Protein backbone atom coordinates (compact mmCIF):
# COMPACT_ATOMS: atom_id res chain seq x y z
CA UNK A 1 0.00 0.00 0.00
CA UNK A 2 1.49 3.32 -1.07
CA UNK A 3 1.45 6.25 1.30
CA UNK A 4 -0.41 9.29 0.09
CA UNK A 5 1.76 12.37 -0.29
CA UNK A 6 0.59 15.29 1.83
CA UNK A 7 -0.89 18.19 -0.06
CA UNK A 8 0.58 21.67 0.02
CA UNK A 9 -2.33 22.72 2.22
CA UNK A 10 -1.70 19.93 4.75
CA UNK A 11 1.97 20.82 5.00
CA UNK A 12 1.25 24.53 5.26
CA UNK A 13 -1.50 23.92 7.84
CA UNK A 14 0.97 22.22 10.17
CA UNK A 15 3.33 25.18 9.88
CA UNK A 16 0.46 27.60 10.48
CA UNK A 17 -0.66 25.68 13.55
CA UNK A 18 2.86 25.72 14.98
CA UNK A 19 3.08 29.47 14.38
CA UNK A 20 -0.32 29.92 16.04
CA UNK A 21 0.85 27.90 19.07
CA UNK A 22 3.95 30.09 19.28
CA UNK A 23 1.76 33.20 19.29
CA UNK A 24 -0.57 31.69 21.89
CA UNK A 25 2.42 30.81 24.10
CA UNK A 26 3.77 34.35 24.17
CA UNK A 27 0.31 35.83 24.71
CA UNK A 28 -0.04 33.67 27.83
CA UNK A 29 3.04 35.42 29.22
CA UNK A 30 1.35 38.83 29.35
CA UNK A 31 2.81 41.05 31.99
CA UNK A 32 1.70 44.07 33.93
CA UNK A 33 2.35 47.18 31.79
CA UNK A 34 4.49 48.55 34.61
CA UNK A 35 6.85 45.54 34.69
CA UNK A 36 10.28 45.61 33.11
CA UNK A 37 9.46 42.65 30.85
CA UNK A 38 6.29 44.17 29.43
CA UNK A 39 7.84 45.82 26.36
CA UNK A 40 9.91 42.75 25.49
CA UNK A 41 6.89 40.44 25.66
CA UNK A 42 4.69 42.94 23.81
CA UNK A 43 7.20 43.32 20.99
CA UNK A 44 7.80 39.56 20.79
CA UNK A 45 4.03 39.05 20.62
CA UNK A 46 3.74 41.50 17.74
CA UNK A 47 6.59 39.78 15.87
CA UNK A 48 4.95 36.39 16.33
CA UNK A 49 1.64 37.83 15.16
CA UNK A 50 3.32 39.06 11.97
CA UNK A 51 4.74 35.67 10.98
CA UNK A 52 1.64 33.81 12.14
CA UNK A 53 -0.54 36.02 9.97
CA UNK A 54 1.74 35.42 6.97
CA UNK A 55 1.50 31.64 7.19
CA UNK A 56 -2.21 31.87 8.08
CA UNK A 57 -3.23 33.66 4.90
CA UNK A 58 -1.01 31.43 2.76
CA UNK A 59 -2.71 28.39 4.33
CA UNK A 60 -6.07 29.88 3.38
CA UNK A 61 -4.71 30.45 -0.12
CA UNK A 62 -3.65 26.80 -0.45
CA UNK A 63 -7.01 25.58 0.84
CA UNK A 64 -8.86 27.71 -1.68
CA UNK A 65 -6.64 26.49 -4.50
CA UNK A 66 -6.95 22.79 -3.62
CA UNK A 67 -10.55 22.53 -2.40
CA UNK A 68 -12.39 25.39 -4.08
CA UNK A 69 -10.28 25.69 -7.27
CA UNK A 70 -9.89 29.41 -6.62
CA UNK A 71 -6.66 31.34 -7.07
CA UNK A 72 -5.94 34.34 -4.91
CA UNK A 73 -2.76 36.35 -4.68
CA UNK A 74 -3.06 38.61 -1.65
CA UNK A 75 -4.36 38.31 1.89
CA UNK A 76 -7.29 40.64 1.16
CA UNK A 77 -8.23 38.76 -2.00
CA UNK A 78 -8.02 35.41 -0.18
CA UNK A 79 -10.28 36.66 2.61
CA UNK A 80 -12.88 37.84 0.10
CA UNK A 81 -12.68 34.59 -1.88
CA UNK A 82 -13.08 32.58 1.34
CA UNK A 83 -16.23 34.60 2.08
CA UNK A 84 -17.59 33.83 -1.40
CA UNK A 85 -16.82 30.14 -0.87
CA UNK A 86 -18.68 30.13 2.44
CA UNK A 87 -15.56 29.44 4.50
CA UNK A 88 -15.71 32.75 6.35
CA UNK A 89 -18.59 34.77 7.69
CA UNK A 90 -18.77 38.48 6.85
CA UNK A 91 -17.56 39.26 10.39
CA UNK A 92 -14.61 36.86 10.08
CA UNK A 93 -13.75 38.36 6.71
CA UNK A 94 -13.68 41.83 8.22
CA UNK A 95 -11.56 40.44 11.08
CA UNK A 96 -9.06 39.04 8.57
CA UNK A 97 -8.94 42.38 6.75
CA UNK A 98 -8.37 44.14 10.07
CA UNK A 99 -5.52 41.73 10.87
CA UNK A 100 -4.01 42.56 7.48
CA UNK A 101 -4.18 46.29 8.18
CA UNK A 102 -2.54 45.72 11.57
CA UNK A 103 0.17 43.53 10.05
CA UNK A 104 0.88 46.18 7.42
CA UNK A 105 1.26 48.86 10.08
CA UNK A 106 3.73 46.86 12.12
CA UNK A 107 5.81 45.21 9.43
CA UNK A 108 6.99 48.34 7.62
CA UNK A 109 7.90 50.68 10.45
CA UNK A 110 8.18 50.42 14.20
CA UNK A 111 6.26 52.99 16.17
CA UNK A 112 5.67 52.82 19.89
CA UNK A 113 2.13 54.16 19.47
CA UNK A 114 1.28 51.45 16.93
CA UNK A 115 2.63 48.73 19.22
CA UNK A 116 0.57 50.06 22.12
CA UNK A 117 -2.60 50.05 19.99
CA UNK A 118 -2.03 46.64 18.44
CA UNK A 119 -0.99 44.60 21.45
CA UNK A 120 -4.45 44.48 23.08
CA UNK A 121 -5.94 43.23 19.79
CA UNK A 122 -3.65 40.20 19.49
CA UNK A 123 -5.74 37.96 21.72
CA UNK A 124 -8.78 38.40 19.46
CA UNK A 125 -6.68 37.93 16.33
CA UNK A 126 -5.26 34.69 17.74
CA UNK A 127 -8.76 33.37 18.51
CA UNK A 128 -9.93 34.23 14.99
CA UNK A 129 -6.97 32.48 13.36
CA UNK A 130 -7.44 29.44 15.61
CA UNK A 131 -11.13 29.16 14.72
CA UNK A 132 -10.48 29.45 10.98
CA UNK A 133 -7.51 27.07 10.99
CA UNK A 134 -9.58 24.47 12.84
CA UNK A 135 -12.41 24.89 10.33
CA UNK A 136 -10.05 24.49 7.38
CA UNK A 137 -8.57 21.33 8.88
CA UNK A 138 -12.00 19.87 9.64
CA UNK A 139 -13.45 20.58 6.19
CA UNK A 140 -10.40 19.60 4.12
How would you portray this structure in words?
The protein is mainly α. It has one domain: Nucleotidyltransferases  domain 2 (Four Helix Bundle (Hemerythrin (Met), subunit A)). Helices cover 75% and strands 0% of the residues. The chain has six helices and no strands. Helix 1 (8-27) runs antiparallel to helix 2 (38-68), helix 2 (38-68) packs across helix 4 and helix 2 (38-68) packs parallel to helix 6. The chain is globular. The model has no long low-confidence stretch (mean pLDDT 94).
Q: Can I get a quick summary?
A:
The protein has 6 helices and no strands. With 140 residues, it is mainly alpha-helical.
- What percentage of the residues does DSSP assign to strands (E)? under 5%
Number of domains: 1
CATH architectural designation: Up-down Bundle
| CATH homologous superfamily (4th level) name | Nucleotidyltransferases  domain 2
The helix/strand series, from N terminus to C terminus, equals HHHHHH
Please describe the topology of this protein.
Elements: H1 8-27, H2 38-68, H3 75-84, H4 90-108, H5 112-118, H6 122-139
Helix pairs in contact: 1-2, 1-6, 2-3, 2-4, 2-6, 3-4
